[in-house]
Amino acid sequence: MKDSQIKQTPNWLVGLLSAIIWGSGQVLNRQYLKGLLFFLIGTGSITAEIVTGNYLNMSGGYSLRMNGGFFLKGIWGLITLGTQPRKMGLTGLTAGDHSIVLMANGIISLLIILILLFLYVWNIKDAAKSRSAINETGKWESSLQYFQKIWGSMYAYIVLSPSAVLLLFISVLPIVFGVMIAFTDYSRNNTPPTKLVHWVGLDNFITVTQVFSWMHTFLGVLAWTFVWAIVATVTTYFFGFFQAVLLNDSAVKFKRFWRSIYILPWAVPAMISALVFKSMFNGQFGPVSQFLLDIGLTSERINWFTDPNHTTLARILALLVNLWLGFPYFMALIGGTLTNVSESLYEAARIDGASSGQMFWRITLPIVYKATAPLLMLSFVSNFNNFGVIYFLTEGGPANPNYNFAGNTDLLITWLYKLTLDNRLYNMGAVMSIIVFLIVASFSLLNLRKSKSFEEL
To answer: PROSITE patterns under this entry (predicted)?
Structure first.
């Protein structure tokens, strides 16, 4: 609605009003419903702080620990991680601070404060922007018209926003919590609630890089993790490639039967298969060791996964089991890709006198590799974090006395698991998780860039 008698009000003044009282600038712009929504958000956050705090009882003075509400005490707890540990008394544990709970609550409160800060800035900018449009056009825009315009222009963002908020608290919050643990002394020797956790800065990272036992373990496990990831990826890829080429040959009969047989290792859960192989290669009771003993190939039972003098044997067996579990995926993937290779290419090659080997290396391999290269990189990343096969098959064994809480077949991910759940070295486990994340993220980013997944259409 146009009104020639509109009083020109400076944009900054309307924005200032909304900065002082949420939604007041919108009310001045005659957008009453929008102003009411912003006002409810602002007053609701303040009310939540007052209700969750102890502001009615400040006879002993105000302190964030005793009187602060959810937001202020949350930030205090995140900064201090508590000041009074709980102690065991005659009636049980006394009242005190739990550092880990304070950290979790602090992260949650910080995330909510960031969301409220975003809405607060939006409230100010919206009031000033709306007033600028009113001053220029001489028209009042109602709240209903504003919401209709927003719904039409930002529909995708509105629909995505609930998922984004949910993702913030389900995915981002645990990641932030894990990263923060790496900068504390949270371990089995310093466990709440009877003890407080403290911020230690980069001390844990310095320990990994400067203390020989930790550095030796880290470099050894890291080197084996890379060897495992590369060999496991290459072997499953090319063996799956080989099987797919054989099944694609016109001389092979009953192709559906053979594909069904070879896909079974992939269909059975990897954990079950790993446990079956672990039982088969059990050094004391396994049938494989007994069979080799019965036919005279060995004079005693072989401890496949526990003999510290034959660590290579355990690693080779782990790679073979992973090959058994992983090749069907590439067989199915490459088999589907082969069906899209034009037969005319092979006909032309035959006319030119090319052999079967030349057709494979010059036609089949380049075409299939180009189509499957991004998935090959993803398989490398998956094998880098292949927790199931190693943990359920070897449990990281054979033991290595020169390593800190790691065995000869442990990957970084299984070592991280042992540090946290088995040995309760949460701070060192968090450091390892950050390192693993940086490595995996680097390869994932490289894969996405090579596959042009970041390019906009």
So the answer is: ABC_TM1
